[in-house]
Backbone:
């Protein structure tokens, strides 16, 4: 059974459905993130947060989660989160730091020179 709401990773188009699931702090975070331009730092961090919380990396097309779809899965994860809104916001901040670190590394990776794999070494 194919679910049109299932993606490989959490899709930002589903974020607005999560806004009213918790308190004011969570609502404000979701609103801030959804108001930003597509693929902004905060949107990438929010997606990473949901990927981590929902376990998107272990979801596959014939899994129960995928058959239900991303919206239902993410809704359930946010509703069942044991901590408070401040804990979710702290997890968001950590995800934001991770994305920022990755983007900074990726931007400088060109200056590190070309990488030669062992099978491509010129001295052989």
Residues:
């Amino acid at each position: 059974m194919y679910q049109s709401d299932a993606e490989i990773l959490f899709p930002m188009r589903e974020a607005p459905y999560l806004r009213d699931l918790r308190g004011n702090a969570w609502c404000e975070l979701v609103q801030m993130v959804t108001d930003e331009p597509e693929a902004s730092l905060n949107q990438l961090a929010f997606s990473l947060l949901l990927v981590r919380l929902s376990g998107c990396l272990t979801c596959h097309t014939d899994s129960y989660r995928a058959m239900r779809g991303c919206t239902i899965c993410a809704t359930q994860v946010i509703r069942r989160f044991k901590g408070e809104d401040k804990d979710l916001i702290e997890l968001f901040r950590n995800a934001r730091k991770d994305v920022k670190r990755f983007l900074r590394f990726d931007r400088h990776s060109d200056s590190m020179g070309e990488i030669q794999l062992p099978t491509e070494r010129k001295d052989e």
